[in-house]
Specification:
It is a single chain. It is built from 13 helices and eleven strands. It is an alpha/beta fold. The chain has two domains: about 200 residues; about 210 residues, Nitrilase/N-carbamoyl-D-aminoacid amidohydrolase (4-Layer Sandwich), CATH 3.60.110. The strands form two sheets. It has a six-stranded mixed β-sheet with strand order 6-7-8-9-10-11. Helix 3 packs across helix 5 and helix 9 runs parallel beside helix 10. The relative contact order is 0.12.
């Protein structure tokens, strides 16, 4: 029993860290091998599936769980409960697979199917349209040069086939003690990794990027709204006489209803005549997580987040009970849902506007490049790295440009590479 528990735990730990750490990205080719071992003993039960999922999601959501624990009185309980809920999907899936999977080939098909369908199955308690895809193992490819090239040429499903089939072959060769064939397989994989780098598409920096500036909220200081506004005004002076025409700032640059402080927008205009696009809150018949477009000291337009983050910005109606809400969410104001999509024009370039979970909790394709504004600042940096590589993964597999604007940096992501803003 202990050998199986160690195998299950080891697999989950490899899986979680392969998504964000490039030195461990290669472990995506072996993280399923311990599961094949347990499964072939006909012991990949509901309990083992739950343990695998729980260990993975505790690590995977550690940054967010830490934030929730600091926000709610019972935040630690909430975070662990949510990890346990997510662990039910692999537990049920592996239990059902155990009933008919009697060979490693069928288990390989089961694992492949799980990674395709689990994104939606785990979001059944959320409103329709939600889909969590940041746990896809293919995201690990975005951490390396060879992996990015694989994503470009093989796509999302092709990369998943490569991962599952490689894990299967390694398991078969180990169980047959075919060490020479295993060495040959590893040599082929290493050769392909280096060879595919030569097929990486080239990137040309668009000229319009030089017209866009960026300010990180980490540079803004102060406690009160006006202190932060004054600090930002000083930072804006840097761009006052530059060739930059638009200055971008991410989600939650100011955590205050900016529409209630029109004098602040006029104040910023005195220091900087450029167009400002920044994330803040909006108060109007409720609270919204909003992206504001400010020009000539006035709010010209805004976009309200359409898909707020579950449990952080709203409580899913399917789990709301009066007693649970009072205990866990008593001191937290919920954000309302935006009701319209938005097209943002930056330096004559059109983008589909998305704020954080609009992008990471759905899988809506856009014909336009995406302008993604997010709060990627966490004390535990796992989610910060995951958001970064997840955005790069989507930019490559969709072969559609993505303008990433976070708290740490801002850049233009394409299948050919990254270009920093001015």
């Amino acid at each position: 029993m202990w050998a199986n528990i160690i195998c299950i735990t080891f697999s989950a730990v490899l899986y979680a860290h392969a998504l964000i750490l490039w030195p461990l990205s290669w472990t995506v080719f072996i993280f399923l091998v311990p599961l094949f071992y347990v499964a072939q003993q006909h012991k990949l039960s509901f309990g083992y599936g739950f343990l695998w999922g729980f260990v993975f999601y505790v690590i995977h959501l550690l940054s967010i769980c830490h934030w929730v624990a600091q926000t709610y009185a019972y935040g630690l309980v909430l975070g662990l409960s949510f990890a346990a809920y997510l662990a039910l999907t692999p537990a049920v899936w592996f239990y059902i697979s155990r009933l008919f999977a009697f060979s490693p080939y069928i288990w390989a098909l089961s694992f492949f199917s799980y990674f395709i369908f689990h994104c939606k199955l785990q979001c059944l308690i959320f409103p329709s349209g939600y889909e969590y895809w940041l746990s896809l193992p293919m995201i690990s490819f975005a951490t390396t040069v060879w992996g990015k090239a694989c994503l470009y040429w093989l796509g999302s499903y092709g990369s998943l086939v490569l991962i599952v089939v490689t894990n299967l072959l390694i398991y078969i060769l180990i169980t047959k003690q075919a060490w020479h064939q295993l060495v040959v397989l590893i040599a082929i994989l290493v050769t392909l990794m280096f060879g595919v780098c030569l097929l990486k598409p080239n990137s040309i920096r668009p000229l319009w990027l030089d017209k866009i500036g960026y300010i990180s909220p980490l540079c803004i200081h102060g406690e009160s709204v006006y202190d932060k506004a004054f600090s930002l005004k000083q930072l804006l002076c840097i761009y006052a006489k530059s060739d930059v025409t638009t200055i971008l700032m991410p989600e939650s640059t100011l955590k205050t209803p900016l529409n209630r402080y029109p004098e602040i927008c006029a104040w910023w205009h005195q220091a900087c005549p450029q167009c400002l696009i920044l994330g803040a809150h909006r108060q109007e018949k409720g609270l919204f997580n909003t992206l504001f477009i400010i020009k000539n000291g006035k709010i010209l337009d805004y976009y309200d987040k359409c898909n707020p983050m579950p449990f952080i910005e709203f409580i899913p109606s399917r789990v709301v009970q009066s007693s649970l809400q009072k205990i866990l969410f008593e001191a937290k104001k919920e954000f309302n849902f935006g009701n319209k999509e938005h097209t943002l024009t930056i330096v004559d370039q059109q983008f589909t506007t998305q704020i954080c979970s609009d992008f990471y909790m759905t899988h809506n394709n856009s014909s336009l490049p995406i302008a993604l504004f997010l709060n990627d600042y966490y004390i535990i940096p796992y989610s910060s790295l995951l958001f970064w590589y997840g955005a790069l993964y989507r930019a490559i597999t969709s072969q559609n440009g993505l303008l990433y604007v976070g708290h740490y940096n801002a850049c233009w992501m394409t299948s050919g590479g990254l270009e920093q803003l001015a």
